[in-house]
Amino acid sequence: MRKPLNGVRVLEVAQFTFVPSAGAVLADWGADVVKIEHPVTGDAQRGLVKVLGAAASKPGSSFAPIMEAPNRGKRSVGLALDNAEGRPIFDELVRRTDVFLTNYLPSARQKLSIDVDDVRRVNPDIIYVAGSGFGMTGPDRDAGAYDATAFWARGGSADGLNPADADHSAFMPAGAYGDNIGGMTIAGGVAAALYGRHLTGEPSVLDVSLLAVGAWTTQFSVNMAMLMGGPLPKVQRRTQAPGNPLTGAYRTSDGRFVQLSMLQPTRYWPEFCALMGLDQYAADPRFQSVQAMAEHADLAYGIVHDAIAKLSFAECREILSRGTGQWSPVQDAWEMANDEALNANARIADVTDAEGNPQKLVASPVRFDDDTAALTRAPQFAEHTDDLLRELGIDDNRLIELKVAGAIT
Questions:
Q1: How many Cβ atoms are within 10 Å of 50's Cβ, its own excluded?
Q2: 282-311 tens-digit pLDDT
Q3: I need a labelling partner for 327 at 20 to 30 A (CA). Which of 38, 109, 112, 179 fits?
Q4: What is the pLDDT of residues 107-145, one digit of tens each?
Q5: Dihedral, 211, 213, 214, 216 alpha carbons, nearest 10
Q6: Cα 114 to Cα 104: distance, rounded to the nearest angstrom
Q7: Confidence bin at 331 (pLDDT 50/70/90)
Q8: Where are the alpha helices (DSSP H) in 96-176?
Q9: Contact 258, 304 (CB under 8 A)
Q10: What are the angstrom distances between the C-alpha of 140 and each of 143, 226, 331, 364?
């Protein structure tokens, strides 16, 4: 199939996951994404041999998901942006580009002459995208950040998980958690900017910060706090929606959890009781209205808790699957990789690694038409330098000169 961004050219000067993951999504959607890396050290994320205490790859394999996921489908060029010999190469790449992506801080962008004015001087029609911790303006515009700080901690997610008496603050549930959410945000913004340029001829400058993405994801609480005029109280909850026993996570007899989210409790209560063999409660007046159920919330909670606690995880899944209410198993990463719905919709994708071995990665969540999301692996460090420079008309003698000068890998 023809992917929607076929023919769009993207130039990326970025490291780690936040902005590179946006480049990966754009590549998934058909864009030709060229990643510029430092000619000696490359993307700093290549140096991470452990992630959250675990090995980043298998022994003897170059396939490291922490690099593969945010960089699949790209071409890598090792180019020194601070080398005068390499500057004409960068300018020529900019000249041929539709979208420029970076997460370098303003001071670094200015030092390397890759800020908006520098890039627009070469290509006035380029869409310029800056991903940052805290935005292009304000007192923290030049402060470094990761998703654990700007998105998770300062952006409100951690506090939302911390009880009033917490002795430590909650950690993110997965590595690059906010980075990947932010990457999808950038990709959507780029698509809108491309459409806007198509309609008006005017290119945009996109400013996407991890803090703003964090505020967007926690906006229910932020908006309520602004409405109430102060911090929201910490509420101790046994269920997701207080007074509704058919919401929240319940533990099975073998230590697993199922998540209920039946936001219309009186609609689903009779069915739940029938499924669980609790016919005596199905028409109980204490549970026939939302108000009555709220008044007897502790009793209702105990009924649901005890019913699920008697079942194994497998038994509970089988029983709940017969009903019409909303629920899901609480899955670990391996179960997600083998989730029937994800695989049926081609959201777990095949990819061949640099050694020719079959691997799998999570596909980006937007599926276009009949796209089966067969991915191309991430590039090895500076893998495409020679080929891409030849596309620019640079011959082999000049390639050698540039390498001797330290301008390219």
A1: 10
A2: 999 999 999 999 999 999 999 999 999 999
A3: 179
A4: 999 999 999 999 999 999 999 999 999 999 999 999 999
A5: 130
A6: 9
A7: very high
A8: 106-111, 116-122, 157-161
A9: no
A10: 5, 23, 38, 31
3-state secondary structure of 300: helix
How far apart (Å, rounded) are the C-alpha atoms in residues 405 and 397? Answer: 13
Cα torsion 19, 25, 26, 27 to 10°: value is 110
Tokens of 128: 């310029």
Helix H or strand E encompassing 360: strand 358-362
Q: How confident is the model at residue 60, as a pLDDT?
A: 84
Q: First vs last Cα of the chain: how many Å apart?
A: 35
How far is residue 211's CA from residue 153's CA, in Å, rounded to a whole number? 9
- The residue among 77, 72, 112, 82 whose CA lies nearest residue 97 is 77
DSSP states of 72-86: TTEEEEEB-TT-TTT
Alpha carbon distance 409, 398 (integer Å): 13
Bridge partners for 328 per DSSP:
259
Token match 């994320």: residue? 45
**Alpha-carbon distances of 233 from 163, 225, 396, rounded to whole Å:** 10, 9, 67
Calpha distance 315→321 (Å, rounded): 10
Instruction: Tell me what percent of the chain is helix, strand and coil, each rounded to the nearest 5.
Output: 40, 15, 45
Position 409, amino acid: T
DSSP secondary-structure letter at 87? H
Place of tokens 């083998």: 338
Q: What is the pTM of this model?
A: 0.95
Question: What tokens does 324 get?
Answer: 């019409």
Q: Check if the beta carbon of residue 347 is closer than 8 Å to that of residue 279.
A: no
* pLDDT value at residue 295: 95
> Which amino acid does the sequence have at 189?
G
In one-letter notation, the amino acid at residue 241 is: A
Query: What is the number of other CB atoms lying within 10 angstroms of the CB of residue 322?
Result: 9
Higher pLDDT, 48 or 82: 82
Return d(Cα 214, Cα 172) in angstroms, integer. Answer: 12
Q: Which residue type is seen at 268?
A: Y
CB 391 within 8 A of CB 77: no
Q: Where are the alpha helices (DSSP H) in 4-99?
A: 18-28, 65-71, 87-95
CB 341 within 8 A of CB 331: no
Q: Given this model, what pLDDT does residue 1 score?
A: 65
Helix (H, G, I), strand (E, B) or coil at 202: coil
